[in-house]
Amino acid sequence: MKNLAALLVALVSAGWVVPMAFGAQLYFEFWHAEAWQRLLGKAPLNSMDFLAASAGCFRIAFIWLGVVIFGWAFVITRKLLSDRAV
Question: What global pTM score does this model have?
Answer without folding.
Answer: 0.83
